[in-house]
Amino acid sequence: MGPEKAGTTRRGPGRRTAVPWLLLGLWVAVLAAVGPFAAKLADVQHDRAVDYLPASADSTQVAKIEDRLPGGEATQLVLVYHRDGGLRAADRATAARQVAAITRANPLTDTPEAVPSRDGGTLMYAVASTAPGSDEKKRDAFVNDVRDVARGTDGMSVDVGGPGALATDAGEVYNSLGGPLLYTTVAVVAVLLILIYRSPLLWLVPLAVAGVADYLSMGVAYGLHQAFGTSVSGQSSGVMTILVFGAGTDYALLVISRYREELRRVERPYDAMKEALRGCGPAVLASSGTVAAGLLCLLAADLNSSRAMGPTGTVGVLCALLAMLTLLPAVLVLLGRRVFWPLVPAYGTEPKQRRNLFAAMGTSAGRRPLVVLASGAVLLGALALGALNLPGPLKQQDSFAHRPDSVAAMETLARAYPGQGTQPITVIAPTGRADTALAAVRGHAGVASAERGRSGGGWTEISVIARGAPQSAAETATIKALRADLDGSYVGGPSAQQIDLQDTNARDRLVVVPLVLASVLLILVLLLRSLVAPLMLVAAVIAVWGAALGIGGLVFGPLFGFAGTDPGLGLLSFVFLVALGVDYGIFLMHRMREESLSGAEPAAAALTALRTTGGVIASAGLVLAATFAVLTNMGLLQLVELGFVISVGVLLDTFLVRTYLVTSASVALGRKVWWPGGLSRKPETEAAGQQEPVPVG
Q: pTM of the predicted model, to two decimals?
């Protein structure tokens, strides 16, 4: 029985053994309870347009009313027959036979009519059915049945496009996210942990605990859906998995790093873990609190897809926090020191003194802090200018990383019918005023044709074809004019949905961004007991966000060839980069505060904090950036763009902002960084004797 760290209460061996086993048993019971629910999360995941649209927009109301019309939501397709050089008589006969077969096999709303292109090379058939209704599986089956029948022959291509086909192709991408996203994330995190720990066993522990947290989050997310009706989409569930593994591994790295330190000072693993949690627990709690608070601000968003990400993302972060502060410590204590083999931290020893890269970087930042700070600010500002080069709004058909059949159909239509509408705009008018609305629509200069459709529940459907091509300036002007002229009616459809997405994202940025900044700033003030340090950290992450978006603007179009930028990229990347980026600031500033409370001078406290936390912050940043980078391998450009911007932002934050800018600013400000707290006005000798408790955030 060797000596213990001063102030550590000695406990009997029974308690040291019982507590970890008790925690392990509780986790087994919890997993057994949530297991049946976790498996059901995929069953309540929906990726229909209404699950992503703005809650109060015209296009959302159209989608909801169509669900209540006879037959439910209509699945609209466009069959595109094309031959370079012109269709032959046999081609037209084949197209007629195939369309007749589709009509016999499926209850269609109307008999499809052939619409030839002016050059004679393309035939277009509009096909719509209400048989699938709002059931996504039935919709996909209908689309695939049509694709099975509509097949090309000897030089004639046949593509199935339209809103229904686009939705099916997007659904296939989202449905494929679960397995590949999880496996790729686990593989990436495993490789990084092996490189970080250089141990054949240690890397397995945080990875396994993160897997447990992910399973728990799935069960809790399903429970929230059942209890409160929170929506679950492929996007939100995918991001939840990323957050569990990314943020959870970050917390694990901090806990394990502090635990390793304490094992050299404290004999028993149980007591060493208590000291480690006492030291890093407040920072981990505050870190997860900022992420959760930032994500919950998304509940104020009007866009369904953004609002859904708030609770599911928060569930992921909190489940990761719970696992890393209870299950991870219990497993590590039970495994003892041998889990670190071959680099076992022996009691009473000092770690090998190696050249510390972060100490060298901190020293260079400390010599000329104002020069370093100004240079970094200029660099970030210059990079942020690249955001001016971001491509315009992403069109629906351009949102796929790989070109599916539905996109091929839309591209063929755009070439064959230039300047002509090829997908319907849906107007929902009160049945009592349907004739008046139909006449007004037909009389509009931007409308090529309009037909009355289904009626039910006091509403009547009008299908409109604009003269302008889909999502062109002319079609957009037509949709906005119809909305202005048709009082009491709603105007929706795929193109209208894209307009609403852009408008609502602009509105949500004005509402959510201030909420995120205020909530994160409040948590930092409570943790650090200062105003200057929190403002400095928030300013740093805003600069990182701007620079990351700027880098996206420099590469999305010119290098990657992306045709547009997702309208939600700015808001979602801001929420994630601010909430997650502040994590590393918390790790650094919390350790700096500890050093200041123990009597270190301000400059020395900043450099010591960087030297002791730089390695773990760098490791955590690499893991988090790598997990979000997994999204760049997914099949939808909105996920690719989001993953790229967040990954780049995390790397900038980790290796430039935290290392150089925050450290140099702290050195330049001295004790003023803690203003108006006690550390800002008390001399170091008094701070050394101060018994102020470490705040818990």
A: 0.83
